[in-house]
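Sat 14:20. Reprocessing the chain from the morning session after the first attempt stalled halfway. Input below, unchanged.
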Amino acid sequence: KLKDMAGGFNPGDIKKYTQGVSWPVGKDDLVNVMKKNGAPDAITSKVQGSDADQFQDEGDVMSKVAN
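Finished this time. Tokens:
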């Protein structure tokens, strides 16, 4: 299974939670969209707590929540 890539989160889930995002996106806007798309706090808190202020694409989000 592909659950090892993002701290136990499936890459397909990240794509679903970021649906509708206009890349690149700022952290606050990304978190708001992810919450609207049903992302659990475990993911949004990792995004919010990351040192990045902007995200380029889903892969960028994956790399941040994996740490």
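The beta strands are 25-26, 54-55.
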